[in-house]
Amino acid sequence: MLNTFVTVTLYDTDDQEILDGCFDLCAEYENLLSRTKENSEVYRLNHRAAGERSIEVSEKTAEVIAKGLEYSRLSEGAFDITVEPLSSLWDFTGENPHVPPEDAVREARERVDYRNVSVEGNVVTFADDDTAIDLGAIAKGFIADEIKSYLMEEGVESAIINLGGNVLCVGERPGGEPFRIGLQRPFAERSEVVEILDIRDLSVVSSGVYERYFVQDGVHYHHLLNPQTGYPYDNGLVQVTIVSPRSVDGDGLSTTCFALGIEKGSSLIESMEDIYGIFMTEDGSIYYTEGAEAFVSDEPRE
């Protein structure tokens, strides 16, 4: 689901109905937020009639778009939810991925500008006919938070929600131990980790150049696109991990901080309360924002 593998693990109950409810929530939000699923609210926004500028959506869709615009402003467009013309142009998962023609990239890039979208109440307004949105960089975090709220309402106090690498912990392991969350070593096997984090009741979200990519003429092209150039970011980073209370913030900030780079990204993280960042560079170096290294587990890796 959600274009990825979804896993929910409950540690203090074996109630199958609660698990079913989690996947029902995923399906519900996919039907609202997917840019590729016909009849979703986002699909309807992006395929609006010429001249149709203001469209009413559900409260949850409006909330996610507003959150995406918040990070678009915070990053001054380095993170931009109107990147859809570019993300549709680049195909990283097809049978024959390749670099799009330069003129097509240039044309798509000119259509990207988060300032052309606004939300008031449940009404989304576009400044022109050309703007389209892609909530892929923030939707999974929002959905993970919604699943956590649902689990807590159902009385669950110990669980892990994993939406394709967006990990959100509910409470701690039975017995009071923290959950041990591995940070994947870029380009290695899924089971190979570079660090283990001890996490209680927090979110861990990573964005990296190894998730969706292809190589053409010896050049590595990944899915984290720079809205200003239309091409993948090339700033020496391979992975950014955010530890935060809410997964939607981890999702938005992992992409934002990857886009901003270590210096600006770290400054942004350190201006926020209870949010921590871990940056990994191409040469394998790891940089921690203030307080982030405290999450690294002292226990040996299994």
Helical residues, percent: 25-40%
Strands of the widest sheet, in order across it, are 1-5-6-9-12-13-14
The third-level CATH topology of the domain at 155-295 is T-fold
Could you give the order of the helices and strands? Answer: EHHEHHHEEHEEEEEEEEHEE
The outline comes out as: globular
Q: What portion of residues belong to β-strands?
A: 15-25%
DSSP helical segment count: 7
* Structural Rg: 19 Å
Task: Name the average pLDDT.
Answer: 93
Instruction: Tell me the number of strands.
Output: 14
Notes on the structure:
With 302 residues, the protein is an alpha+beta fold. The protein has a domain at 155-295: T-fold, CATH 3.10.520. The chain is 31% helix and 24% strand. The chain is built from seven helices and 14 strands. It has a seven-stranded antiparallel sheet with strand order 1-5-6-9-12-13-14, covered by helices on one side. Strand 5 and strand 6 form a beta hairpin. Helix 1 (16-33) packs antiparallel against helix 6 (139-153) and helix 3 (59-74) packs parallel to helix 7 (247-270). The longest helix has 24 residues, at 247-270. The chain is globular, with a radius of gyration of 19 Å. The two termini are 29 Å apart.
Concise structural overview:
With 302 residues, the chain is of the alpha+beta class. The chain has helices at residues 16-33, 41-46, 59-74, 84-89, 102-109, 139-153, 247-270; strands spanning 6-10, 54-56, 117-120, 123-126, 158-163, 166-171, 179-184, 193-199, 203-208, 213-216, 219-222, 237-244, 276-281, 286-288.
